[in-house]
Amino acid sequence: MTDPRPELPGYYLQHAAAQLQRRGVAPGQWLASAGLAEAALADPALRVPFADFEQLVLDALRLSREPALGLFVGEQLAPATHGVVGDAVLSSGSVREAISLFERYIPLRLPLVSVALECSASEARLRFTETCPLGEIRRPVVEAVLLSLKNALEVISLGASRIGAVAFAFEAPGYAALAREVLRCPVRYGQAWTGFSLPLALLDAPLRAADPVAFREAAAVCQRELDKLTANTTLAARVQRLMLEKQTGFPSLAVTARSLHLAPRTLHRRLEEEGTSFKALLEGVRHTLALAHLRQGRFTVEEIAYALGYTDTANFRRAFRRWESKPPSAFLPRPSV
Fold it and tell me: In sequence order, what are the residues at sequence separation of 6 or more whose Cβ sits closer than 8 angstroms to the Cβ of residue 313?
């Protein structure tokens, strides 16, 4: 089964390596499990398969003995860390303009999440959504990305765009007090959403460092890079990404085709030309999500079956045996003794 989850840019691993080194862990020791040398992290073309990235994050948490490692890494991720996307953000004319860049171009740098600006009568919210199941690495990844984007908005506004509060959908960790210190604002856990709020009035306030010419040039480069990424991505991979972004209530072939600006028959034909089908892609995504949900241990087999669109748990169990030659229960975490 081809892993539909995205590859990750290797340069973010440099910052994790720096944190590990500060804690007495040799980066080479950490990278060995992925078959990477420390020098490889400086290669801007390095892409790391999701499975390797996932294992490296888990190993980093274990070797550092620092459960809040995601916060410390996120603290290092200045706007310039995000390459041309960061360049465009730094020259933005307003916070709203900067957020629109993250909304559109975040797949170029951080393809594990998407962000969306939501405005009400009283406040603005920047909501973060996982674009694929992060499982055990959800907390450190989300903390690092959220802190990085929060810092970027505060940097470009010279501190004027103070974040009102941060919300996390997961439960409070043992280091919750530390998180509040690092994030420098109220932090609420166990919420129905993940992201942060900011004053509505600050969205369109002019930024002192605005540079319209530099902004247009950087945004044009971002668009070219996104076009290149899209052109080099198979249609099957784009369909998988749409499915992973939903994770439940998968879109039908007709809805998927419309999202991709294609006729359903055209989508069907082009997937056949790539040697696959909509049904096969859906099966693969269900397989990936089933394994991720089971290993995370947060849901029962029945709940996972329902989330993956199976109206009958027995059908899910049969499909799972076909994928893994084992029942779903074999992949559930064992209770600690």
Answer: 301, 302, 305, 306
Structure tokens at 207: 């930024």
Domain ranges of the chain: 1-66, 70-232, 234-331
Per CATH, the number for 234-331 is 1.10.10.60
From first CA to last CA, the distance across the chain in angstroms is 34
From residue 276, alpha-carbon distances to 23, 39, 239, 253, 265 in Å are 47, 38, 11, 13, 14
- pLDDT band for 335, please (50, 70, 90 cuts): low
Average pLDDT in the 197-213 region?
A: 89
List Cα–Cα distances, 127 to 69, 159, 267, in angstroms.
22, 21, 31
**17, 6, 18: which is closest to 54 by C-alpha?**
6
310 sits in the region (left: phi over 0; alpha: psi -120 to 50; else beta) called: beta
State phi, psi for 265 to the nearest 5 degrees.
Answer: -65, -35
Buried b / exposed e over 166-194, threshold 16 CB at 10 Å, is bbbbeeebeeeeebeebbeeebeeeeeeb
C-alpha 3/C-alpha 55 separation (Å) is 15
Task: Summarize pLDDT for 111-122 with one digit per residue, the tens.
Answer: 889 899 999 988
pLDDT by residue (tens digit) across 25-84? 999 989 988 888 888 888 878 888 888 999 999 999 999 999 999 999 999 888 888 888
CB atoms within 10 A of CB 214: 15
Q: Please report, for residues 26, 133, 221, 231, 232, the alpha-carbon distance to residue 43 in angstroms, rounded to integers and kept in the order given.
A: 19, 27, 20, 23, 20
Phi, psi of 335 (to 5 degrees): -65, 140
Q: At what angle do helices 95-105 and 212-232 cross, to 10 degrees?
A: 10
pLDDT at position 279 is: 92
Kindly indicate the confidence band of residue 337, based on its pLDDT and cuts at 50, 70 and 90. very low
Going from the C-alpha of 162 to that of each of 150, 201, 207, the distances in angstroms are 9, 11, 14
